[in-house]
Amino acid sequence: MAGDDYEEILKYYQLHGTIGTGGFAKVKLARHRLTGEKVAIKIMDKLALQDDLPRVKLEIDAMKDLSHQHICRLYQVIETPKKIFMVLEYCPGGELFDYIISKDHLSEEEARLFFRQIVSAIAYVHDQGYAHRDLKPENLLIDEEHNLKLIDFGLCAKPKGGLDYHLNTCCGSPAYAAPELIQGKAYIGSEADIWSMGVLLYALLCGFLPFDDDNVMAVYKKIMRGKYSTPNWLSPSSTLLLDQMLQVDPKKRITIQHLLSHPWLMQGFSDAVQWQSKYPLGQLDEDCVTELSVFHEQSKETILKLITEWKYDHMSATYLLLLSKKTRGKSVHLRFPCVTKHASTMMSTGLEHSRPDAQLEDTEFILSTPVTRKVASKKHKNKENVETVSALRNEVPFALTAPKSPFAKSQTETQVQAVPLRAPPFKESQLTGVTPVKKPNNPTNADELASAEILCEGRCQSVELDLNLAHVDSSQKKRKAKIFGSLERGLDKVITMLTPSKKKRYTRDCPRKLKAHCNITTTHLLHPDDLLNEIIIVLSKKHVEYVQKGYTLKCQTRSDFGKVTMEFELEVCQLTKPEAVGIRRQRLKGDAWVYKRLIEDILSSCQVNWSVILSVSRQKHP
Length: 622
What we know:
Belongs to the protein kinase superfamily. CAMK Ser/Thr protein kinase family. SNF1 subfamily. This protein is α+β, with helices and mostly antiparallel strands. It is 34% helix and 16% strand.
């Protein structure tokens, strides 16, 4: 049964909102129960993967081999009959691509800092015998310390004969592909990576691509000529380095070894780029091992044996997350997890309407005359607006007015038990056996989970609650309402009288409060509804289909043949420092540079005084 696919992942993680989608995957933000650490979980449907399944297996194998300070860490892999879950390091800074957009282009000093990290990661990857073959700003994430992490090894290659062995598969993104790939020649993977790194460095320094055109064949012709413009703000040393990397003849390109100590990369630094891993898998941290030993009431030797097997199971994940906490100066302690009473039976029915990874294609987008949003009325203030698809399945989908949650009442009617767990002595074959002790628990708004610390003493807040509620039989709810309705109404009045207004839960009748970030454009508007209404009007004029959910607009564009070519989110938000109204942008699917131009067009068309001048592509390419 499909529900069983999620049962395993929900034992260890609390799933929250979707933070990205791809051709065959969805990425969700989650929190590890024992450490409280945020993670990103890549969820893939095996049936949808079809011919791409070997590519996923290749990516998993590569990430198990690679452990480097500038490569996104793999924590755990869970495979079920229908799903593959990859638990990955969460990088809150988003894609390097979004950072480039926010800056128009980077200064030489900042580009150098980032590029040293890219060179470090690629030198390590090559040393391990791999070629990445899909280097681009979208595949580099920014962590909370503003460092880069390389992702997406689905197209990587590890030739059996070593990196000098020729490859034949033409893969990667056209704009970053080396000339020899386009020409269909056999090529050396490491040499092709150097070309892609040159395109990437150009994008950092210039804010646009060296070889760009709306027509793919025109892009290929430009790449094979190897001619590109050099903006006047590029320094002679930057121009020289780009020329050394973007050589059409791969044998004339600079090597990764020479890049490590190249004069341009050494400016402002006393040492060459350090490419060796700071976190080799063979060296285990004693404090983390001790904490696991105490928590599971087992000897250090037993814990060491389990960790060093590197099965990338829950033991691997817990150790690596503890290590991550320690490197960031946080305490190395495990907490007692909270799970819901019905964790073993959730999602047993109606999965078509309630699965957490439901795609946008399952719903009907609207493209019509915009309905403007009024200031939220008081009657909606106490309504919960659950994020999970399962809890919204009976709602009239995607109306352009303030959303109403059909489960707002059923959440108050349904009592869910939380189960705080003691750490049991574990068996080597299973580390998750527990003895539950029931404790009352109240559901809260799912949107609070992404920012709030999830503590065992507090509420057990996750999509599990929504999934449980989604499968409560409606007739049971009606009978319950008849018997207890009057009592609950009276109780609600008492609760309302005794609850201070300052403790009212956040709802979608007001925008989220966010910190200023590279993917947020700020305005001088004072009211978020004004900005929301203006964007809705522009989307309709631009023939962009959208779905409104509170202050978030899920948008998509289609080709002339009806195929979805782009998916992205625009969310009106309230900034805390400085106090302002802004728009958060997030690309979910589609070409990054096409997305860039579309977003610039949408925002520049709004009758809004933006705090930051939008960068519109203005450079003509030869």
